[in-house]
Write a structure and sequence with these properties.
heterodimer, A: 261 residues, alpha+beta, 5-stranded antiparallel β-sheet, B: 153 residues, Ubiquitin-like (UB roll), DNA polymerase, domain 1, 2 domains, globular
Chain lengths: 261, 153
Amino acid sequence: MKDFNYHSAKDSKEASKLSSSNSAFLAGGMTTIPSMKLGLASYKDLIDIKNIKKLSGIKVSGKSVTIGATTKHVEVANSKDVKKTIPSLANLAEGIGDPQVRNRGTIGGSVANNDPSADYPSACIALNATIHTNDRKIEASKFFKGMFETALKKGELIEAIEFQIPEKSSYQKHPNPASRYAVVGVYVAKHKKDVNVAVTGAKPCVYNDKDLSKALSNSFSSLSIQNMELDSSDMNSDIHASAEYRASLVVTQAKKAVDAC
Amino acid sequence: MRKVTLEINGKKVEKEVQDNTLLSTFLRDHLNLTGTHIGCDTSQCGACVVHVNGNSLKSCTALAADIDGSKVTTIEGLATNGKMHPMQEAFKKLHGLQCGFCTPGMVMSAVDLLQKNKKPSDTEIRDWLEGNICRCTGYQNIVAAVKEAATKM
């Protein structure tokens, strides 16, 4: 791994001040460190935000659950508050990677990285999340811009993610058997007025499937989507699954999610 | 360079390290604790699992600098007064290893499981060991060893 300078920031202000065009924030490091070791990324400065106390923790208010950026997957998976208010979110966290990744990896890191197969971005879309940064609040629907691309500006730091509590919800993924990343993951959330069907793994970036959402908003039953065929022309195709297979998996996982709600 | 202060297997350690020194490198090359193995070096195989502040993590994917001030337990820290830890005993008794390369990580991961779940089922053991890869045993005897250790811990 190439040389870099390690800094541990005391607060968001210091973290932001230390950042430059050649720096990265370090939370759990579950993606950042392997990418740097493989030479896929290199930075002059790594700014550790793990020791900023304000960035960790889970708070529930009447309509939403707010999770601090450096909260670890294991903490979300085991949180009584999350299990009670949005059990599907605790389930999602429990299914990320392996226990060692969950002991270290953070929700803010996953969301900021926006891996096309990551689990948390689908939760943000399905649960109408608001991404709180040190500068502003961004709606999830405007946050995920493309493959590994987000609305975050240089030096902008995610502080917390606020999820809207749905009436019902479920996350169902078809995991890659080795990495546990989603070949396809579908997060269905039924809110008072409408239904979101957020899909990860199928396209270069997480998205809300309008056709599935519309069908389920009209009638929240897996029967209403069982014969749907999705356009696979812009879906990912690789050694693990062809685009056509992914298109079929999206419907299958969506049906499973609706039945599990 | 920076100074890190850690408690490793109960002993206080103070060392100068480069900012980019991995915990696995620090343990093996700086402290000669070569029981922690480096297999894939891409945080998939789990041979490098150690405990930091009581939780298992993959030491090839953590910086020595970012765990400054923590308590670390490696495979060398499990035995007490020359007596093997019940998990080590169980792996030995039930042949939970063949070549032994994955074993330090396997044992450290399994000890963490039993700290959190005293009587895990076969499925729970297999789920927990998701991040530890063994290319010899087919896992049967590893699962049997963890179950045996659960009766002794």
